[in-house]
Structure formats: C-alpha cells, structure tokens
Amino acid sequence: MLKWALVALVVAVIAGIFGFTGVAEGAATVAKVLVGIFLVLALILGVLGVTVYKKVT
Fold this sequence. Notes:
By secondary structure, this protein is mostly helical. It contains two helices and no strands. The chain has helices at 2-17, 21-56. Helix 1 (2-17) packs antiparallel against helix 2 (21-56).
C-alpha cells in the first residue's frame, strides 16, 4: 500500500511539473489517503502484536 502511495506521489509531482494541476491534485490526494490508511493499519497491527505477544508469553 505504501508503494502505491509513493507511485501516486511521483505521478503528482510529474503532473505538476507539466502543468496538469488537476491531475496533480488528484494524485496527491490519493497519496495522502493511502499513507493515512497505511499508518492506521500499522498502528493497529503494532498494538495487536504487542497485546497478543503479552498473552502468548
């Protein structure tokens, strides 16, 4: 998922360079959403990992 966010960021930068501001804005929004989802999932999995680890050991 983080890979797709980076791809969207690169598309946004390239579109911005060439003057396609609408495309750049859309790709930047997609990148922000994907990074947000990635961070939330990483946080949830980290908390679950710590709590499950404590229950197992």
